[in-house]
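Progress note, sequence design subtask.
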């Protein structure tokens, strides 16, 4: 656990795979112009999963905690993505079901 979370009570935690986070990062880049890193994608995938569990009429808040700058050699590198068997163009619906 990182120092910034010491002493915090965590109600729920999810393990998010790289592909759903990557799909969300690329969708936000294409549709919203947000250049985010994988940590932000993980947070958003967890928020979506939580929202689906809770049902409609909920307000869910998460943080977009990093930019894509430090990920350019990997997350935004098509060769690296192919080597890792990751597809940035999967539709969001395919990874959130």
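Output:
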């Amino acid at each position: 656990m990182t120092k910034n979370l010491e002493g915090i009570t965590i109600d729920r935690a999810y393990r998010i795979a790289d592909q759903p986070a990557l799909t969300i990062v690329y969708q936000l880049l294409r549709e919203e112009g947000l250049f985010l890193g994988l940590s932000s994608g993980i947070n958003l995938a967890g928020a979506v999963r939580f929202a689906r569990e809770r049902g409609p009429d909920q307000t869910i808040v998460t943080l977009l905690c990093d930019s894509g700058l430090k990920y350019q050699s990997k997350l935004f590198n098509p060769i690296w993505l192919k080597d890792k068997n990751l597809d940035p163009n999967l539709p969001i619906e395919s990874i959130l079901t």
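Residues 38-54 form the longest helix (17 residues). Work on this subtask will continue into the next period as scheduled.
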